[in-house]
Design brief:
157 residues; mainly alpha; 434 Repressor (Amino-terminal Domain); 0% strand
């Protein structure tokens, strides 16, 4: 596709300028790879060495960035949402927020499938309505949780 960014080039840039502040050598060490092998596999100038795709997640963890996930999702016509907290348990409001995103995503996928033939049938409309009501319900639940938290917090002040 025109305008698509090379995932390898993106990873190469991230390794050289890691948000985690690890050096490229430290990233290679974390991946259990020789520095030169890692950099050769990610080099935008070379086509004969390929980076091991199984190393992509460990690389993102080492550099402290999910940017490759966002780019891959964009190239596939979707989006990626960072939602896991960095440490500790998931707060109930955060969990409900992610449930809302998931249910809205389910509706988006269902809508895209229904529109593949440019016609939304009665069955598709009913399914989309169910998915939409589920998404709205999840969003309303989230808003109620936020309101309840605010009311509790105001009572403590």
């Amino acid at each position: 596709m025109s305008g698509d960014i090379s995932i390898a080039s993106l990873c190469h840039r991230l390794v050289k300028h890691a948000p985690s502040r690890l050096s490229a050598e430290q990233v290679a060490d974390r991946l259990g790879m020789p520095y030169s092998t890692m950099m050769s596999g990610l080099s935008p100038l070379r086509n004969f060495h390929k980076f091991d795709v199984d190393k992509l997640v460990p690389l993102m963890k080492a550099v402290g960035s999910t940017e490759p996930m966002h780019e891959m999702a964009r190239q596939m016509g979707g989006f990626y949402v960072d939602f896991m907290p960095k440490s500790g348990g998931v707060h109930p409001i955060h969990a409900q927020c992610m449930e809302s995103v998931k249910s809205f995503g389910d509706m988006m996928v269902g809508t895209a499938k229904a529109l593949e033939d440019n016609i939304i049938t009665g069955d598709e409309r009913r399914k989309l309505a169910r998915l939409g009501y589920c998404a709205v319900g999840d969003i309303l639940t989230l808003l109620l949780q936020i309101d309840e938290t605010e009311a509790r917090d105001e009572g403590k002040a």
